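Re: the request from the purification team.
They wanted to know what the chain is likely to look like in 3D before they choose a buffer screen. I agreed to run a prediction and write the result into the notebook, where they can find it.
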Amino acid sequence: MSGLTYGIYAAGQVAATAGPPDDPAAIDRLVGGLSGGRPFVVREYLHFLGTPADPEKARVLAPERRMRELTMPDRWYGTGNRRLDLVLCYLPDEYDIDGWLAFIEQAVRRYGAIARFLQITLEPNFKLPWIDGSSPGVLDALTTGTCHARRLLDAAGHHDVRLGFSVAEPPEFLGGDEEFWAHLEALAPADFAAHVDYVGLGLYPDAFSPVPESALAGLTEHALRQLREQSMPRAHLGPDVPVHVAENGTPTGPDRTPGDQAARLEIMIRTVAAAATRHNVTHYELFGLRDADSARAEPTARLGLTTSGYQPKPAYDVYRELINGG
């Protein structure tokens, strides 16, 4: 559909919610079934947890292990027309920019040759636990980290890596994010905006609160328009800077059947595709491939196109058909 490049978060864990271990063979088969050899983005997350890291967060998120290997072997991300979208998350309990910059250096050394997109912070305008916007110093982490990452990528010759950040929009979804955009507005373009290749959008209009299906298209279009026309210009990011829908999903659950999930996803994806040219949206990444834990009822546990045992839901076939131009 349209000129979008599609993708997915292929692992199972969602913040602190984790069920069965990831199955690389199932991931390979299911991702291959979606992409059909077309260009396809695979999203992964690395977490900076402070110096020293909070022990409980480190136990859950295993940042040292993931710095050694992501969900799949390195070579997998560079074959089958796949493209790695690597998110560096800032989640310390105390302000720690020095440690954060060292973490970025480590990540660029380890994955700079593999990644095609490098995202600095996850939703720094969103103040919820386990999301970067709740972390002390997140605005400095975004702006200083982006400039630092650009220098590192250029010095290493990784000129094909696109550098960006993601936000959750629109502000009424969050309770307001004026402080965030005012901070970016006050910066000279050379100090931040000049280093940004794209802006990611975390788009969950109905995942965490009840929304009529009939409202989804309007809410999706509103989020894209808000980001493009209101927020990005404040940060000196013009219409030439593309938007990536970096995360979008809707769960199954006690009040949401697998058929409901499929229908709602189709509405949102078709809305994004229809608005892509108007808002310069170039990428769409779905969250995610499988449920974190299908035995649990909360939305974050059941966002997948498959169960946590990799049994496809109807939404899997819907997404595959949309990718194929359906």
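For the purification team: The chain has a mean pLDDT of 96.
Please add any questions underneath this entry.
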